[in-house]
Please model this.
Amino acid sequence: MNDMNVVSFQPDDRLFVYAVVYKLVGPDDAEDVTQDALLLAYRARDSFRGDARYRTWLYRIAMTTALGHLRRRRRARVSLVANEEQARLFEHVEDPARSPEHQVGDAQQVELVGRALDQLPPTYRTVLLERVETPEPAVAAKLGISVANVKIRTHRARRQLAQRLAELDRAA
Model:
């Protein structure tokens, strides 16, 4: 390795990464995601080849880390549990800072989602419940269907679930 490819972090790199991450994840998670991005950059410092500017390389790492965080957060956002069968699908963590009104609203949403899931055809409900924690190929093998069929059923299940939720919401 030649000396030009050695990455040495500068004090303003942290501010640079924080600014990039802050725009995507907001103030609540910016510190944690910044730390994750800098740790990733430190671990991958030998992969910097010098083809692009250092800041471009660091920007890409920050963006990738922030987008990964958003993706994980979006998956975790589905936290509504209606019954024991669906408990493995959704994990609900109470926020102690939430007001009683919000907690009642959350409980109502849990009930609403549970009723909507119960109204789905069994083939769609099964694939949707399996698909949350399991990759498509594993679901396909478990259910004895093709990966394409898993994708189709998942799409249709999500669409029907959204329709059922809208209908239940209007009725409530």
